[in-house]
Design a protein that fits this description.
13 strands, 6-stranded antiparallel beta sheet
Length: 166
């Protein structure tokens, strides 16, 4: 039987600042020059990047945002709920996983600039997913959510923010 510990060891996953474990699996060789990118990017970016991302059943990925779209892929384990707060305050829960009869999908997309967090649907087990980012991910584009700031900006989502910020 496959376990979270086996996956972490086998793929040399590292702790991620938002929670969980990750390993970059792809970074494109080609680069988009800064003048070819929207102004929100301070410098050139790779065309695309990809990671493995693993969350244990009791863990969560804390609210954060990035400057690129992020495509999530489900691999194995428990389904994953992705909580998304759009810049205009609208919110949605994306369901990533194999339970197609209950609205889950093998891929979900979080648009650039949205705040998002995630956790497995069941505290027993784990979720192994992948994330592909284009333009490619750079930690310069990563912002962890501050609970107080998010409360002020999105008071209607206090329950999510309380539960999914570190």
């Amino acid at each position: 039987m496959i376990t979270a510990e086996k996956i972490i060891q086998e793929y040399n996953l590292l702790p991620h600042p938002e929670g969980g474990y990750y390993k970059q699996t792809y970074i494109s060789e080609e680069i988009i020059p800064s003048e070819g990118l929207p102004e929100r990017f301070a410098s050139a970016r790779h065309f695309s990047t990809a990671i493995y991302f693993l969350l244990g059943g009791n863990d969560f990925s804390a609210f954060h945002r990035i400057k690129s779209d992020e495509l999530w892929h489900f691999y194995t384990g428990m389904g994953l709920l992705i909580y998304v707060i759009h810049p205009n305050g609208e919110a949605e829960i994306l369901k990533l996983g194999y339970d197609l009869n209950n609205g889950f999908s093998f891929q979900q997309t979080v648009k650039a600039g949205c705040w998002f967090a995630s956790h497995p649907v069941n505290p027993i087990g784990f979720s192994l997913v992948g994330c592909t980012v284009a333009p490619g991910f750079d930690f310069a584009d990563f912002e962890m959510g501050d609970k107080k700031d998010l409360f002020k900006q999105f008071p209607q989502h206090e329950e999510w923010i309380s539960k999914l910020c570190r």
